[in-house]
Structures are given as C-alpha cells and as structure tokens.
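User: quick one, fold this
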Amino acid sequence: MALNRICIQCGKHFTLSDSEIDFYNSKNLDLPKRCKTCREINKGKKSEYNRYTKRTKASEKVSAPTGSVVGFLVLFLLLEINISVTTAFIVSLASAVISAVLIYLFAGRKIEIEEFDTAPYTYTFYDTASMVSHYVKHGKEVGCDSMENYLYKANSLIKNPKALKKIQKEDGDTAYFYQPTGDFAVVAKAGYIRTYFKADLHYFNKQ
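Assistant:
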C-alpha cells in the first residue's frame, strides 16, 4: 500500500509507491524521509543526473623515461637562457624528483567507477565530484572495492545505533565513529555526507 509522508526538509507531502517501498525493504534500507526533489538538491544534481550515466576511467600513465626527459629538457632550457650551471642543476634535480614522485604515485594506476543508482541510499555526497574524490582517497582505506560499496558502508556507519555521535559546534555537522572498526564519517547539517574514512577515538573526540 502506498505511503504518504511529509518531507523533513521542505515540509511538502510526497508519496512512496508500493514498488518503491518493496525496493527499499528488499535492500534493508530506511524509507526516504525527504521528497525526491530535496534528495536531488542535496546530491547537487537535477533528476536527469540522478544516475551515474557513464563509466569513468581515470588513469595516469607516467614512465621513468618521461621523467628523465622532463629533467633534461628543463636543464637544457635553463642553460640556454644563461642561468648559472649550479642553479640549472638544482632546478633540474628538483624536476627529476617531482617526476619520480609522480611515477611512484600514478604509474599504472587505473580507477574504474561503475554506474549505480544513488536513490536507495538515505545519505549521499554533495555531488558526483565529491563522492569520486573521497572514494579515490579513502576507498581502499575503509576496505571498499567499488564506489557503491563505499557509499553503502558510509550509510551503514551513520545508521549504526552503536556508533558514537557528536554534533560539531562550529557548523552543526554531525560526526559518527564506530570504535571497533575505526570507521569515521561526517554528515553536513544539510543532510549530505562530507567524508568517510578511518580514524581513532582521539580524533573523534577533537571534533
């Protein structure tokens, strides 16, 4: 039977159909407390962008020869404009170091983001870019092999009754922490996830 609810964000009435209720129940998810429009606004995108429309592949390919070439080119150009050999060598060396760091961080790294629907989740990030950024930075740290799994685990933490909860004085955001696993998340006052990563009790207490 369809369910009529009042949106906790805008105060308007909205209806959940039988199929929607069955879907949320089958996923063991809470029924939405916000209307579809407010959920879309909180996610920072309009309804046509409610779904990730394509698979995004981000990869950086940097090779050792490329790093060396960059360093030598910098050295050559600096010498051509009559900068001292010592200065040129230092700048060239710095370029080589930077190249080496880039190689270490990005060589062969490939990130695949599968298309998935965010609607079943009570909480999500402000927008696509924010979710991708946090998943790339913290996904492995929290043991997630996909961005949907990252969002699922963040929601599980936020709704875990055993998690510690604290409202931050400065901005009214809410911090969540589950000590057995070290999972930590922050939900903005507006209702979207700011971040999700591993922390410790000392970090949580400082929030």
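User: anything notable?
Assistant: Residues 52 and 165 are 31 Å apart (CA to CA).
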